[in-house]
Design brief:
Strand content: 25-35%
Shape: elongated
Strand order of the largest sheet: 1-3-2
Number of domains: 1
Order of helices and strands: HEHEEH
Low-confidence stretches: none
Distance between the termini: 34 Å
Helix content: 40-55%
Number of helices: 3
Structural class: alpha+beta
CATH topology: Aminopeptidase
Mean pLDDT: 82
């Protein structure tokens, strides 16, 4: 199901999927990492999840 979401988002020119979860939600964190999300600390007790969908979008993100 997540792969289908990725494909649909990419065809709609969406470059990134961003979400948040509690730092205690190990199942979601594990799944997110398994499917390519990068995690970073957000607000207190919250983890930010981010996944770049295409190489072209990743290049756009580094433009000034």
């Amino acid at each position: 199901m997540l792969a289908k979401l990725d494909r649909h988002a990419a065809t709609a020119d969406v470059c990134r999927i961003i979400g948040y979860t509690l730092d205690s939600n190990e199942k979601t964190l594990s799944l997110a990492r398994k499917v390519g999300f990068v995690t970073s600390e957000g607000a207190r007790g919250v983890i930010r999840l981010e996944k770049a969908l295409t190489p072209v979008c990743m290049q756009r993100a580094h433009l000034p």
